[in-house]
Amino acid sequence: MHPRLLREQWIRAKYERKEFLHPEKQEPYSAGYREGLLWKRGRDNGQFFSRKFVLTEREGALKYFNKNDAKDPKAVIRIEHLNATFQPAKIGHPHGLQVTYLKDNSTRNIFVYHEDGKEMVDWFNALRAARFHYLQVAFPGASDADLVPKLSRNYLKEGYMEKTGPKQTEGFRRRWFTMDDRRLMYFKDPLDAFARGEVFIGSKEGGYSVLEGLPAGTQGHRWAYGITIVTPDRKFLFACETEADRQEWVAAFRSVVDRPMLPQEYAVEAHFKHKP
After folding, report:
1. Fewest Cβ atoms closer than 10 Å to its Cβ: which of 6, 101, 108, 233?
2. What residues contact 194, with CB distance under 8 A and at least 6 apart?
3. pTM for this structure?
């Protein structure tokens, strides 16, 4: 699904800026370097601050700086671990972009926007171009058609569920869940920088399954529509507010459980740390 901003900027590029008729007007997405200011949400206080961002393919990284004249970046995000997806409703800005990356095998979220929709789309396309060039090197035998789906991905599903802890005796607590391919992450707030925990969901061949309902005698949940995810290590218990919600989550979970694991996903599973 392409967000409205991407469609709108494609139309403007074609009819207003005539970029398709005049190639020299096209943004050099694949120049390999981009620098500019974006509004970035503070990790702890929820305010947005203007921050300098630098994308450099030569270093294979997106960097941002807390001060424009700072020598050292606040963070260095490896292109290989980066994903970008438009999230206007969640971020509360029509040009809001969520950038996610792995740090120490945990997911970190950054939320940014720019007042100019074209500028934000240009950043999005530059990140995708950098990912494309990285993947061409990482998978030299792959066709462009194989690589394009890996440039950026939307989440399979997001929303609130209740969860309980590993002993399954604690009360259920409402959390925001994001299903990013085989990673199910949960957050106290949708705009948290770090997930409170992550669950890897493998394939049925590896002993993973998804069941509707909760084990008999489960207590502490306010919402009536339960889901049990069975993994080789333990069961994870969730509760949804409506039956429609449950069906959407079950469909998302089963879409990955029914899919055989890729070789690189076994490595992720091996390194995955279940957080309580």
Report:
1. 233
2. 106, 107, 108, 109, 187
3. 0.82
